[in-house]
Amino acid sequence: MMSDEQIDLLYQQVAKSTSDLINCNYDPTAIAGVMVAQAMSIYKTVLSDEDYNNMIDFILENKDRVKTFEPPSIQ
Q1: Residue-wise pLDDT tens digits, 2-36
Q2: What is the sign of the dihedral through the CA atoms of 26, 30, 32 and 35?
Q3: CA distance 74 to 33
């Protein structure tokens, strides 16, 4: 299992890549759509059908907790 530090680093790296794509003038909604499709494909690959469905339910139930995207400040 990944540590909180590893997850935070991973989050920062993906956020940086996302920010780079936005800065290259890709449509942010297209970027988000591709990321969602990839994430769901990963979940579908590594989870059982039951766990996949639970994950999708969890995402939907927590949709109002999602924050706006703020690229990380890179030092």
Answers
A1: 999 999 999 999 999 999 999 999 999 999 999 99
A2: negative
A3: 25
Amino acid at residue number 19: S
CA–CA–CA angle 21, 11, 23 (5° rounding): 15
* Measured CA angle at 39 (ends 7, 2), to 5 deg: 20
Give the Cα separation of 70 and 57 in Å (integer): 25
> What is the rounded CA–CA span in Å between residue 72 and residue 13?
9
3-class state of residue 74 by DSSP:
coil
Torsion angle, alpha carbons of 20, 24, 27, 30, to 10: -50
